[in-house]
Write a structure and sequence with these properties.
By secondary structure, the protein is of the alpha+beta class. It has helices at 38-42, 81-87, 90-108, 181-193, 254-267, and strands spanning 5-10, 18-23, 26-29, 36-37, 48-57, 60-67, 77-79, 120-121, 128-129, 136-137, 142-151, 154-159, 171-174, 196-208, 213-224, 236-241.
Length: 276
């Protein structure tokens, strides 16, 4: 968390504060951004599914309103989280990234996944509770391994069909139940490009709110094999020289950090800072 933004479990019955409104189209914004006076938002006749107190921004309490309807009040519109990532300040993006994950969890856990009864918020922790079967549901975090594979002055980059046109990135994949981080990394590399790797080194992590990934970043060295791309997952994969790289992921992503860090070390440049 940043110095301006800290998470907290706040009672929605508490008056005042700031609020963000979220729906399938993204976050509500006006000329001043995505943070609104909470009392003003409540007067806009919004179709609210649920409300959660999520933390403090510049010392003020912040609440999340999850909405059913996508009709915006006059003078407002919707903006997707990726646009904030690319264009907004880092503190606001960190707040909204957290809010987006809580919104996904809150929307998906209004009813018990075991017995189907309505769930209620627990006031002292981030959990939904079913009185019928006593199930508690917490926000989900899905661990994912992301790795930069290198071979001297070359780095392996690949394209998914889902990427922005022309952009290449590092390999990544979600861990399977019972799988170690290192085991996941080795398996994903074999599956996606049929290569072997060695000298795995953990670099850092980043919470990735699309919608609930915890990205564990690694560097690995090429150990053998020829590139064979996984059908439907990898559109293209190539070795690129650190002197001639293709279009790369957004600067705030851990994928870009892994790339920039290796390039900086290889070329004797100042090392980048991992976005938090």
């Amino acid at each position: 968390m940043s110095a301006r933004w800290t998470t907290a479990v706040l009672d929605p019955n508490t008056p005042g504060g700031l609020a963000v409104a979220h729906c399938a189209e993204g976050f509500l914004v006006d000329a001043n951004g995505a943070l609104f006076p909470r009392d003003w938002l409540r007067r806009q006749d919004l179709d609210v599914v649920c409300e959660h107190g999520i933390g403090h921004f510049d010392g003020q309490p912040v609440f999340l309103l999850e909405l059913r309807s996508v009709q915006a009040p006059q003078g407002c519109s919707w903006r997707g989280l990726r646009q904030f990532m690319l264009e907004g300040d880092s503190d606001t993006y960190t707040l909204l990234g957290y809010a987006a994950q809580i919104a996904t969890w809150a929307r998906e856990h209004r009813f018990c996944g075991s017995c189907g009864q309505a769930m209620v918020q627990i006031q002292w922790e981030r959990a939904m509770y079913c009185a019928g079967c006593e199930l508690r549901s917490y926000p989900r975090i899905s661990p994912s391994m992301i790795v930069l594979i290198t071979r001297g002055d070359e780095i392996l980059l690949a394209r998914s069909p889902r990427f922005v046109t022309g952009v290449y990135s590092t390999l990544a994949g979600f861990a399977e139940p019972g799988e170690s981080a290192e085991g996941c990394l080795v398996r994903e590399v074999r599956e996606e490009v049929a290569l072997e790797v060695k000298n795995l080194q953990y670099v850092g992590s980043q919470c990735w709110p699309f919608p609930h990934s915890m990205m564990l970043g690694f560097h690995a060295e090429y150990a053998g094999g020829e590139i064979v791309m996984q059908a439907d997952e990898i559109e293209d994969a190539q070795w690129f020289s650190v002197h001639a790289l293709p279009p790369l992921p957004a600067g705030r992503s851990i994928a870009r950090y892994l790339i920039d860090l290796y390039v900086a070390r290889r070329l004797g440049l100042a090392e980048p800072v991992l976005p938090r």
